[in-house]
Amino acid sequence: MFLPILFIFSLLPFSHSAVQDFCVGDLALPDTPAGYPCKKPAKVTVNDFVYSALGVAGNTSNLIKAAVTPAFVTQFPGLNGLGLSLARLDLAVDGVVPMHTHPGASEVLFVLEGTICAGFISSTDNVVYFQALNKGDIMIFPQGLLHFQINSGEGVAIAIVSFSSPSPGLQITDFALFGNNLPTELVVKTTFLDEAQVKKLKGVLGGTG
Ligand SMILES: *[C@@H]1O[C@H](CO)[C@@H](O)[C@H](O)[C@H]1NC(C)=O
Fold it and tell me: Where does this protein hold Mn(2+) (predicted)?
């Protein structure tokens, strides 16, 4: 009884000086590679650690019939410096999150409702790992790899995705390739697609040139 208590007290001075419990991001200051500077601890309240937006379905009335509702550091500054974040994914019937990457994070997807065909492609030899996921299934998407999610069921699908960074980043490949102003002839050269197809995709995805 006596010894363990002494042991705990001997640790206290160290834990006090070495551990910073949290660093709620001050979004008024510039982001840095290590995250946002910390809000002054005296100004932190429980509201910095609670975020309620993920209970509401995102608006899927769009081209991809899908909505990602993020709880990343810019929406939820309490995550700053903690190495994780979350988002809600809503997929209407025929909805898809097209091939995309998160440059800054690995992802775990947890299916809450419906059926989602999801997969990723390895970077070393382009092996595809994909499967239809049902309610309760989880799947991993390693950092930086191309991946996708398709609603392959009859009704809506809902998932929660968690990331190993407060700022996972998102680049959707089709928007990156065709939603820009790179001249069509250069897109043709760099994708091996026909000019007509490139012009069509630029039109659909908001590109010019
Ligand atoms: C959903 O988005 C569409 C297209 O932007 C818009 O017309 C519609 O009003 C939105 N619906 C809701 C409920 O916000």
Answer: 100, 102, 107, 147
